[in-house]
Amino acid sequence: MAGAIKGEVGILSIHDGTIYRPIACLTSNGLDTNVSVISSNTKCDPGLTIKQGGIFDYTLNADGEYIDTTSIGGQTTKASHDYLLTKQQLKAAITWKYDTGVTGAVYFGTAIITSLSLSQGAGDEISSFTLSLDGSGAIATIDPIV
Description:
Layout: E1 11-15, E2 20-22, E3 26-40, E4 50-65, H1 81-89, E5 94-99, E6 106-119, E7 128-140
């Protein structure tokens, strides 16, 4: 029996025009996929509901610790809230990469940053952020940048 896959190996990254930048200090991330269902009831099939797959769509989400990724001395090879906010304000699709940590299970696509939230509590709390991406088009297993 194969071993369980540890969540810590799954990394979401976004392309900055040169490289894929991992989303900084992730505490969790995920990929949610959906297919709508088209139902029909006709006289051709009385008493039956016929169903077929409709539109495929997906979202990605991530939670991470807020770190400096833009100023001199910051971790500029990663993407944290400050970098992601700049991308979100452009209102343009970004290219993403989701490495699940499983051989052959690396996914790529484009998405819009729809939600970005920064949380900074008092005292010893670590600043954190949440990110939501709304997918555009298909999910690929081949890097579209190469």
